Amino acid sequence: SNGSTLMTQIYASMVKCKLWSTCSYAAPPEAVVTTAVTNMGHVAMPASHSLAFPDPLFVSLVFGISVALMSYCTWPLSGGHLNPAVTLSMLVAMKVRPSWALCYILAQLLGAITTSALLYGLTPEHSLGEMGINKVRVTSLQALAIEMIVSFQYILCILSTSENRRDPSKCGHLIIGLSVTLGHLIGYTGCGMNPARSLGPALITFVFTNHWVFWVGPLAGGLAAAILNEWVLFPKCSGFRQWLTMLQEKLQEDRNSQATAENLPGFTAFEEESSTKHWLLTQIVKG
């Protein structure tokens, strides 16, 4: 009947566009809270050019408290990543699907760029200061090591508090906030820890000096934390081969869901009659 065909088409569309369902449910919170954290952190920095070195404790506390609060708010929705390095480590730890991870990272980058653009446009020119741009005050290799260390301890805290054997509702968010505060107290690099937060101001002001440090450092630190947590502290696999097998199974689950939608009756006709928006989303999933 027409009713059953319509329901089949709707179900096929929902399965086919799992990426869209993820973006519509979990990605917006990631974008919003990344915007909020970046905004509060940058506003906390003294905007006057005469204050070249803001009070590190004040700025560190603002970043730490904002991350603790925002992660608490979004934990039930998206897990409260707020950070591409965190999302990458969650992917390595098999706590998020590859399609979800991609969606999260795009949302985080969009949130950070948006808030940086808003701050740049709304702040008076004489008060812009450095716009929260991270600056390397040591050698590049030293800065890379610092970013790896502070990101390692931060992401290890997130991974360990997210384990099932620990209740994150008790003190996990406070621990995560304290780890962010600790990282920002080490001010030799301005403490990136978050590639999205570093990208926003750099992109708006077109200042990319040593910008690679604030991507490679946090991502490498996050990978190291995920490996330590998953293979040593809370082992779930015996080695790299088993981990690779588990990752392949996750990818296969996504492919099976897509194939299920394609084989449902009436899906081809529904695709042909779908809107341009649906077509674009389908191409993203197929890609």
Automatic annotation (TrEMBL):
Topology of the protein relative to the lipid bilayer: Multi-pass membrane protein
List the molecular function annotations (GO) for this entry: water channel activity
Subcellular location(s): the record lists: Cell membrane
Q: What GO cellular component term, any one, is given? A: plasma membrane
InterPro entries, per this entry? Aquaporin-like, Aquaporin_transptr, MIP, MIP_CS
Please name the PROSITE patterns in this protein's record: MIP
Report if keyword Membrane is assigned: yes
Query: Does the keyword Chaperone belong to this entry?
Result: no
Q: Name one Pfam family in it.
A: MIP
List the transmembrane segments.
57-78, 99-120, 140-159, 171-190, 212-234
Q: Which UniProt keywords apply?
A: Cell membrane, Membrane, Transmembrane, Transmembrane helix, Transport
The family assignment reads: Belongs to the MIP/aquaporin (TC 1.A.8) family.
This chain belongs to the protein called Aquaporin 6
